[in-house]
Amino acid sequence: MYSDKVLDHFKNPRNMGEMKDADACGEYGNPICGDLMFIYIKVDRRNGKDIINDISFQTFGCAAAIATSSMITELAKGKTLEEAKTITRDDIANSLGGLPPQKLHCSNLAADALHDAIEKYYSKKEPQ
Ligand code: FES
Question: Is 62 a catalytic site residue?
C-alpha cells in the first residue's frame, strides 16, 4: 500500500513540467520498466555557492515514479549542488513515509536524474 504522502504527491505533484530556460536537464530511464524521467534545474551563484534556485520534472512512469519526482524537487530546492548530490533514493522514500518494497526501485529514477542534471550543469560550466 502507498502512504498518504505518496498518494498526495501523486495526485498533486509539486514542480511538474518542462523548464524551458533550465541551466541543465538530467535524464534517467529505468531499463526494466521503460519509465523515463527528466529533472530540470536552474542554478544561482550566491555567496560563492551554486544553489538550486528552481527545479521541475517530467516523468513518464508509475505512481511511485511521479511521487518520488515530486518529492525530490522539494528536497533539492534551495540546496547547494553539493548538498543535492548527496540526496539518495532512501532519503526520497523515507520523506514519502516509505514505499512498498516492489516499488523501491522507482525512487532510483529521481535520484539518478537529479545527479545527472548536476553533472551536466558542471560539465557545461567547465568543459573538459
Ligand atoms: Fe517504472 Fe516505477 S514501475 S519507475
Answer: no
Q: Is 99 left (phi over 0), alpha (psi -120 to 50) or beta?
A: beta
Cell of 112: 539518478
Closest Cα to atom 2 of ligand 1:
106
The model's pTM: 0.94
Catalytic residue list contains 25: no
CATH hierarchy code of domain 4-123: 3.90.1010.10
Q: What is the pLDDT of residues 68-82, one digit of tens each?
A: 999 999 999 999 999
2 near 22, Cβ under 8 Å?
Answer: no
Annotated domain spans of the chain: 4-123
61 lines ligand 1 (CB under 6 A): yes
Over residues 3-43, the pLDDT tens digits come to 999 999 999 999 999 999 999 999 999 888 899 999 999 99
